[in-house]
Amino acid sequence: MRAVVQRIKSGCVSVDDKVVGAISHGLLVYLGVGKEDSDKDIDYMAEKIINLRIFEDEEGKMNQSLIDIQGEMLCISQFTLWGDCRKGRRPSFTDAQEPKEADRSYKKFVETCREKGVKVETGVFQAHMEVSSVNDGPVTMLIDSAKKF
User: Fold this and answer.
1) Does residue 146 come out as left (phi exceeding 0), alpha (psi in the -120 to 50 range) or beta?
2) Helix pair 99-115, 39-51: axis angle to 10 deg
3) Checking DSSP bridges between strand 2-15 and strand 26-32, what pairing results, if any?
4) H or E element: which one contains 54?
5) From the record, which residues define motif Gly-cisPro motif, important for rejection of L-amino acids (predicted)?
6) Residues 18-45: tens digit of each pLDDT
7) pTM higher than 0.85 for the full model?
8) What is the DSSP letter of 80?
9) Angle CA(28)–CA(33)–CA(34) in degrees, nearest 5?
10) Is residue 86 a part of any domain in this protein?
């Protein structure tokens, strides 16, 4: 499972010109599910992301997590994180999970974060979405449950 995690001041996602999810201060998470991902990967990613200390404390150090600041999460499904651009000019997505299982994993990730007390807004799985955000920092992290980067 892979994620691009951005610290944001605000964010929203629209489908067909209708806002379907919006948050204030927190994290924008683009989440991609790979073929080999399991529930263990979901649990790892949820714990890692909501406890990642990338928010500043009173001394200006990145020392607080999403949980600590009682922030929100905007989570967007993003199979293109599994795009392999090493050969040719067109990305290959053969390492991405099949849509039905990816949808289940995505929803389970969201539910796991909610169970841990995080307010999570989402986009619509497999929809064409417009995502807007105001980056804070900017602070952007890449996380992979297989720890490849």
Assistant:
1) alpha
2) 40
3) antiparallel
4) none
5) 137-138
6) 999 999 999 999 999 999 999 999 999 9
7) yes
8) G
9) 145
10) yes
